[in-house]
Amino acid sequence: MKDKIMDRWSTYEPFYVVLGDKKVADIIITNHARSRWIDRVESEKTGFEDICAFLWDRLKKEQVKPYYKNEKDVYVIEEDLVMVAEFSIIENEFDIAGNPLHKMIIVTFLGRMSEVIELRDLKSYYSWLRHSRRMTLIKNSRKRK
């Protein structure tokens, strides 16, 4: 995190990338996100370091955007890859102005919109999923009775 040298001698500024109203200074990949990365994104560069390097690069290039304007959990990378992320404040880490820094916790990767057409409209996709699961549960409960 502290790899950005300032102009003054021997002082460091914590490195962060601004994403919306958050200042991301650390990325955490969950095991679930890593398994989804292997299944849905890439099967060669699958280490935690590889995924973090990819995400840092895209964050620095400002290629990570919220899926919807007011959405704070779902993000699109390079207008194609959809991921779900949560944020938490890093204890005792602040920028120069005293604002808190955040860690970005990658929950899962949903896939690429270019490959999974349903990801283009997440709200209708999730309502369809809920409906299909509900119908499956209803069918299964009928069989038991």
Give the secondary structure arrangement, pairings included.
Elements: E1 4-5, E2 12-13, E3 17-19, E4 22-29, H1 31-40, H2 48-60, E5 64-66, E6 74-77, E7 81-94, E8 100-112, H3 122-144
Parallel strand pairs: 4-8
Antiparallel strand pairs: 1-2, 3-4, 5-6, 6-7, 7-8
Provide a short characterization of the protein structure:
This protein is of the alpha+beta class.
Can you put this structure into words, describing what you see?
This protein has 145 residues and is α+β, with helices and mostly antiparallel strands. 32% of the residues lie in helices and 34% in strands. The strands form 2 sheets. The protein has a 6-stranded mixed β-sheet with strand order 3-4-8-7-6-5. The longest helix is centred in the last third of the chain and has 23 residues, at 122-144. The radius of gyration is 19 Å and the shape is globular. It starts with a strand and ends with a helix. The model is unreliable at 1-10 (pLDDT under 50).
